[in-house]
Write a structure and sequence with these properties.
Number of strands: 5
Bound molecules: zinc ion
Shape: globular
Number of helices: 7
Largest sheet: 5 strands, parallel
Strand content: 5-15%
CATH class: Alpha Beta
CATH topology: Rossmann fold
CATH architecture: 3-Layer(aba) Sandwich
Strand order of the largest sheet: 3-2-1-4-5
Radius of gyration: 16 Å
Structural class: alpha/beta
Order of helices and strands: EHEHEHEHEHHH
Amino acid sequence: MKNESALVLHSGGQDSTTCLFWALKHFREVRTLCITYGQRHCLEVEVAEKIAQKAGVPFQLLDASVISQLSDNSLTNPDMVMDEEKPADSYPNTFVPGRNLFFLTFAAVIARSHGIKNIVTGVSQADYSGYPDCRDTFIRSTNVTLNLAMDEQFILHTPLMWLSKAETWALADDLGVFDLVKNETLTCYKGILADGCGQCPSCRLRKAGLDEYMKRR
Ligand code: ZN
């Protein structure tokens, strides 16, 4: 893959930042795509741009806020109280239906315009909520669909698909960016950098993984 280029879906969070540095190791040229969809915190964009600058790669921003008009979810609706746990019979209200399908479609169209076949995304099947559009079967199916839709040979890469959060910290460490990921990424649903609020589901997942990794570091 070393002679090829890749487009990384980058939000400025722990997972996509780790994927960005994974891509820099495996591809000759890398560019990032940051998609906004009406999230509560626009700080994400600033964080993503700063990390792209540090990594020395082009940064592209796409406004897809139409996604927030399609369904009600607590990531884009400030009046909705965020689910702390996954309800037994459904997904938490942090689930944005169709989000990754839109993201990958936008990414593929943009990758195609740059002559890029490799698309990297930080989705993980081991993620706590079990969002359907983070599963391996969804990614494989979407890969086939995108290739058929555009008569291309895209390859969707998901380096974190089978990793726990602790293993994702280990990967960042292997890539030499443990401190950058720990101190400069934004994962918190409440928009607080680095270790975040410590309370939201995203912070708790990040911290549990970090604690587990630090025990064996
Ligand atoms: Zn938080």
